[in-house]
Amino acid sequence: MSEIFKVTILGSSAATxxxxxxxxxxxxxxxxxxxxxDCAEGTQMQLRRMKVPLMKINxxxxxxxxxxxxxxxxxxxxxxHLLGRKKELHxxxxxxxxxxIRLQYEISELKPSFEVVFHELRQGEELIFDDGLLTVHTIPxxxxxxTYGFLFREKEKxxxxxxxxxxxxxxxxxxxPGIKQGNDFTTKDGEIIPNGELTTSPPPLRSYAFCxxxxxxxxxIEQIRGVDLLYHEATFxxxxxxxxxxxxxSTALEAATLAKKAGVKMLLLGHYSARYKDMKAFKSxxxxxxxxxxxAEEGEEFYI
Amino acid sequence: MSEIFKVTILGSSAATxxxxxxxxxxxxxxxxxxxxxDCAEGTQMQLRRMKVPLMKINxxxxxxxxxxxxxxxxxxxxxxHLLGRKKELHxxxxxxxxxxIRLQYEISELKPSFEVVFHELRQGEELIFDDGLLTVHTIPxxxxxxTYGFLFREKEKxxxxxxxxxxxxxxxxxxxPGIKQGNDFTTKDGEIIPNGELTTSPPPLRSYAFCxxxxxxxxxIEQIRGVDLLYHEATFxxxxxxxxxxxxxSTALEAATLAKKAGVKMLLLGHYSARYKDMKAFKSxxxxxxxxxxxAEEGEEFYI
Lengths: 304, 304
Prior knowledge:
- Two copies of one chain form a homodimer.
- Chain A folds into two domains: 5-157 and 203-303, Ribonuclease Z/Hydroxyacylglutathione hydrolase-like (Metallo-beta-lactamase, Chain A); 160-200, no CATH class.
- The longest helix of chain A is centred in the middle third of the chain and has 12 residues, at 97-108.
- By secondary structure, chain A is α/β, with parallel strands linked by helices.
- In chain A, the strands form four sheets. In chain A, strands 6-5-4-3-2-1-18 form a seven-stranded mixed sheet.
- Chain A has ten helices and 18 strands.
- Chain A binds chain B through residues 15-19, 22, 41-42, 44-45, 48-49, 65-68, 71-72, 74-75, 78-79, 82-83, 96-97, 99-100, 103-104, 107-110, 144-145, and chain B through 15-19, 22, 41-42, 44-45, 48-49, 65-68, 71-72, 74-75, 78-79, 82-83, 96-97, 99-100, 103-104, 107-110, 144-145.
């Protein structure tokens, strides 16, 4: 059985929150690990409302340093401190965030109970994280200030060895790791048993691309090709395409166009301008081009 | 009739928000003017939920630079910018806040549509604001870092002239301002009419003292003597008095003791530690000493 791999929407509003919607933040869960993607104002309250075990979060990925994507971080760090956190926390973002946080610590005269390791992102398509189970690469966005998306991919897994084969061919324990990695097996009698007879394929590797904020661009289309789930910002509907371009944001139709061209399996829209009250139009506009489109709404979970 | 003078609770939790309670922020309304007292994370969403006209806020008073009292300010400023605000905004706080905000502007590459005038507070019992209707003085708190409470007082008002006197004594228009300020009136025949016969007293001057965060101290007791409403932090109950002292906070009983000794008319408690789930015990503890005690709870309004 595959490990749980799911994204929970904590906020889906662009730029400014509304009375109903927070600005951007998502919780990504893989197996029992939690990763935070962006951390807008109010994220810590959203995490508490959704009963997320805060201390399971050890890695926070910030796409860029516009307020609606990071202003919840100082409060979350302060809460970690109050909870007596000892474990170090890793924060990945474009340069500048460490200076902001350090200044706030200094002025508050706060000596936090744990260390924050800041990882400054300086180029796109770079491997920034590998914990043995998942890798994360940056995706270069096209936005007013330096912005990165994040591509989460499961790592290659061992093949599954069939128990029946172990009995049938009397495979010794020390041969099993090699077989799981694709080796054939030679019996005592010298018979070569091809790997395909001994093992079954692991489940296909899953992937999640988080693309916020960006104008429409096909620059990174090869990087996200075929992902299981693409989150792509859709700040506007197509009738505001000119405004979207001017503000380096995208429309629902543009997000869907990219999803289609990149052959992704499923598209998730979000980062809706506060001017819109009802998001149904985003889904219907995108579905003209790409049927398997869904809406990021607070509290919703999407399995990858 | 007196102008509206009321405080609305936007947040009442100490240090860290819970799933139900935001950290400190209050909206003070006087006539049609709005003042924000502290601005914790999520304040802008609370203001939107309570349908407060954001652009009516021109003055923000920050007691101190612990995160749970100011981390909502950057997001609120960004929202003002998105709404196209032109009018300057005045922010009063201990030194350091301007540096925090400017750094965030710089890193976000934000050129806000309006100017923020930062007023650095450097001593207690200082007059920091006077708009002709209200004055604000700082109250020196006793806390780990430099912290000020704020004392809002209605200004002395003119006496009300009786319409019947104007007719009876044929008082000319140009004499009216002087009479409203307490002058007697001399008729054409040389008769002196004492002011008390011509006017009635204005309503008594109302006052609100906002005291967050502080250990128990009687240092400013004369400054808050007899205020109509005293908001005083009560982070703990009395069984945690030692912890309160160590953390330079107060208990409900201590707040009530101060309210009694200062002869205030009404006490409002808030800034409850997140460890408490039910606040009733704060009220009952305080009422042992000071009967007219109420609890700051989100969305509640208190008329002054």
